[in-house]
Specification:
single chain; 143 residues; alpha+beta; 4-stranded antiparallel beta sheet; two-stranded antiparallel sheet; 22% helix; 21% strand
Length: 143
């Protein structure tokens, strides 16, 4: 039975091959000309899943046919992906198979990067050489 289903699926794929319409990658067209997603639309799409969603940034995803929505919900920041049809969304890792990289994690690290030079250190307790090449900043709540 399972073998029959597999053969049927293979025949369907041969008869109706997948076209190259996903993102027009081979034609070199810019998908953002026809497909748009603004912050209000993204909030409306995702509010059923995350009622307190706050959209911080929207860009095109490295994968054609998806938007990368950087948002915050429940005090946690994350990346959501929304397809061009605005019918599907997923939360998870987008992984480059060829490069063996987690593109979602790299992008999240880039978006959450903190400029340590902006941290006020006037009341800091300095241990060791203040002119050291590498510095470690430790935050502690005494209460």
């Amino acid at each position: 039975m399972l073998q029959s289903v597999f053969i049927f699926c293979c025949l369907i794929c041969l008869i109706f091959p997948v076209g190259t319409s996903l993102g027009f990658e081979t034609k070199g067209q810019d998908c953002s000309k026809c497909h748009t997603l603004n912050q209000t639309e993204a909030v409306d799409l995702l509010k059923n899943l995350f009622p307190d969603i706050k959209v911080l940034n929207i860009t095109m995803s490295p994968s054609k046919g998806l938007w990368e929505v950087y948002g915050q919900s429940g005090g946690k920041k994350g990346i959501f992906y929304v397809d061009f049809s605005k019918k599907h969304a997923f939360l998870g890792s987008l992984i480059s198979i060829a490069e063996k990289k987690n593109l979602s994690q790299e992008r999240l690290s880039e978006l959450n990067k903190i400029d340590v030079s902006q941290i006020p250190l006037q009341d800091a307790l300095v241990m060791g050489d203040p002119n050291a090449k590498f510095k470690v900043i430790v935050f502690d709540d005494p209460d």
